[in-house]
Amino acid sequence: MRKKGFNMDRASFFIITLPALLLYSFFYIYSVILGFYYSMTDWDGLARSFNFIGLDNFKKLLGNKAFFSSVTITFRYALLMVVFTIVLGVLLAVSLNSVKRFKTFFKSVFFFPAMISSVAIALIWDQVFIRALPALGNMFGVENIASPLGNKQTALYAVLFVNMWQSLAMPTVIFIAGLQSIPDELYESALIDGASMFDQFRFVTLPYLVPTITVNAILTLKSGITSFDYAKALTNGGPARSTMLVGIKIYIDAFGETPKFSIANAESVMLFVVIAVLSIVQISISSRSGVNNT
Amino acid sequence: MSASTNNLQAKSPVLHKRGETLIWHFLRNALLCIGIVLIVMPMWLVLINSFKTLEEASQSFFALPRSVNLDNVHELLNGQNYFHHVGNSLLVTVVSMTVVAIFIPMVSYAIARNMRRRYYKFLYTYIMLGLFIPSQIVLLPIVKQMASLNMMNIWGLILLYITFSLTRGVFLFVNYIRVLPIEIEEAAQIDGCTVVQTYFRIVIHLIKPMISTLVIMDALWFWNDFQLPLFLLNRSRDLWTLPLFQYNFKTEYSFDYPMAFTAYLISLLPMLVVYCFCQKYIISGLTAGAVKS
Amino acid sequence: MKKVFALVLTLCLLVLTASASSAEKIEFFQQKMEEAPQRAYAEVLTKFNEEYPDIEIEINTVPDAGTVLMQRIAISDIPPIFSDYPTQTQFKEKVNNGYIECLEGNEFLSRVNPGMIELGKHYDGQTYALPLSQNYMAIFYNLDIFAEAGIEELPKTWDELIAVCDQLVSLGITPFSFGDKDAGRVGHCFQALSQATYPGVVDYVVSVVNGETSIADNAEPFRKIGERMLKLHEYALPDYMGTADTVMWENFATGKAAMCITGSYARGTIMISNPDLNLGAFPIPGDVYDESPLLTGIDAALCISASATDEEKDAGLKFFEFISRPENAQLWSDIDGAPSCILGTTYSDPRVAPIIEKAATGVVCDWYASKVTTQVTSEIYQVVQGLLLDGDLDAYIDGLDEAIENAAL
Description:
The structure holds 3 protein chains of 3 kinds.
Chain A: H1 2-38, H2 56-62, H3 65-98, H4 103-111, H5 118-139, H6 155-167, H7 169-180, H8 184-192, H9 197-226, H10 229-234, H11 246-255, H12 261-288
Helix pairs in contact in A: 3-6, 3-7, 3-9, 7-9, 9-12, 11-12
Chain B: H1 5-11, H2 18-50, H3 54-59, H4 71-79, H5 82-112, H6 118-128, H7 135-148, H8 154-178, H9 183-190, H10 195-206, H11 208-224, H12 227-232, H13 242-252, H14 257-292
Chain C: H1 2-20, E1 26-29, H2 35-51, E2 57-60, H3 65-74, E3 81-84, H4 89-96, H5 114-120, E4 130-142, H6 143-148, H7 158-170, H8 183-197, H9 201-209, H10 219-234, H11 245-253, E5 259-263, H12 267-273, E6 279-282, E7 294-304, H13 310-323, H14 326-336, H15 353-361, E8 364-365, H16 374-390, H17 393-407
Parallel strand pairs in C: 1-2, 1-3, 7-8
Antiparallel strand pairs in C: 3-7, 4-5, 4-6, 4-7
Helix pairs in contact in C: 2-14, 8-10, 8-16, 10-17, 11-12, 16-17
């Protein structure tokens, strides 16, 4: 009886996983393999036939200045995003956690942006930059406040700001969760030792947040490196390439007016390598700090 | 001193030196206020300008509307098939969501409890591959495949959402289930429960917090996604989901921006309503999963 | 177990229902998102349905139409009827790959202005798209403001244009509204100005693309064009770099500036935003009026997919025949705001006469994209946008060479 049940269980386990395996292989892995394959061809996306050209696309890309400037911009964007997310996220989490009155209200307002689609946010901020900033300037008697999206120096920061406006909510929630896992006794004993508030933050709160910080940092870094929707809707890579993130470049190369589909795929493969390396780093870090992590 | 976590942290600053506490409170409140202004301001502008005529808006962008003018709303609701698009979005989100919520925990349970076996170990690694792959590389091949299967429609989109949500879902659940004590399940099995019975009677209750996390995260994604619908549902306007409808106003009402604002507002409306009623549940639901992962 | 079966069953059902649904309507994929052309097509189609009640053509306009069309061709899911730009190299590429039905031998082609047919021909001398409307780049101006400022003679040369600008400035009027947020719009202005200044400039770019020479080798023309771009922007409303095209048109339509350099594609949209606007247009001047060509090309053209079914092709041809009848073409052109390519139509607005006169002289030129790939043009646009941002002419000259090199990727 028991043995029969056991076999039955094994069968049920297997059957449960089967649709997942099939769907995933058929609709995902197959496409990924095709994508990798296209990166080694000269298919522009239009032609009915194409050739296998090995690693030529990668060689071309490595010698291409436009691609390199995109990579530089992307890394700057992603790193800034990580720094701001960590600093603002921790600050916000600590603040929200210590507020006494209207706590729910504050939390729900700060979490609200996570509910809206990136497209809607980009469209709304685009309008705010164009319409509200000059109007605001007029109100305070400052003439000619220019949209930050129209300036090479500020466009990337403006895009980053809009991106952060939405994406800060999730890391903050994770930080709050991290804060709540800190045992109270530690604060009490710190207090008895006469620690100042900053010391308390520095020696009690921060060390306990380290695992959460690493998780958030890596997640943010990844989303920063692959980011493209905000810049696509706000600036489309301009002005003068100053916001041409790799994500947008891939999109334009793949689906733009003159498609170079295989090149776009080679760019994605390079992105894949970067993300894979980052993820391996993440896994090794989080397994090391796993002691604190649950 | 057996105060709860929240309470104590809320109280502790009071015990510090007065000056220090004051500065901290000042900084904290300033930060929160700036944050609130930044978050509420664009929404507020969208709201007040939706009720204005173009003329009124260009005269005073920040002022309250002179009267609550619902002409814009009327025009959009009557002329633009708004409810049809809401219906499409609802269909996509609810169907994908239901399948994902039932399906992913079960798959993850099977994997988590059989990690020693080669097949499941392989399956887990295989599904985790998705974590490394940037979405851009899949986009064209997948659309090509969907077209050849004649699935360039809402059902095709749903199928893709189910597939694409596997990676993150399985990752979250497997790690969550693995640390659950196995003893209860073993006891149930000794009592004669099959795996399926054990799952529905016991396991499902243990993983409820994680299910709510998954449901919220994925529902937000399905509801707000723009790229996949754009590529899959571009054959006819009838198929559009809400984000496509919304994006359309970028050019169609490029001049009449109060009208565009109205369009953004009514596109946000369903989400706003849900959020108003369930925000507490949404935030705590997300936190439940977040703590563990 | 039951649940599992139910799940598998649901999935099967999903797949089944998905493959079962198919559309009866014939899709017409229309690339222009602006309100005016959308309305124009809709009106003509309503009339078409009265005559052919059994053919149901459905207009489909999506955001990011160019991208979506490329994607659909890449996956061999080509709309049966669509609009495209036959003078562009990307269109010729589509024809070369056999995606587009040849229209040769159809009676309705004889209704089209022969010059436009010539312009839209493929390398093989055949016609693959029905040219519907012409576009041109022009300086649109506000007649009321010009009258108020006492400007009676429209400027015909660069120096006269600058004199007009100075006169406007002295009266406290801002001469130009620019919208340079989108590199594409900067590029259109640049194309028009560069060809008006140096009529043969595209051929020079072609030789640079072919690697025969470089921009830096003969920097003088491009330097002068760059200087003129910058000069015009000295007369512009502030924050032109942050201004989107629609806001530029809006600023012009509401009288914040006297002139606006843009394409005929904007005319209908400008008129919708301010129907009372007294709008005129004149060619972008070069040094000598008689030598500076008017930038003009085919704006909207209709074509049929080679892989459409016979029924769809037939419906498409009937629609083309219908829309190319002079009365329907007139209706279309009146709403869209661009001059029609169909003989027997009139572009009645006397305020645009300077453009029509110029076009009649035959001193015209085509867009860059008819001779170089859109990749090259869009790379150039980025550099010109950079020039407007920092005003650095040397960096711009170097940038142009680099951009053309990048485009060769």
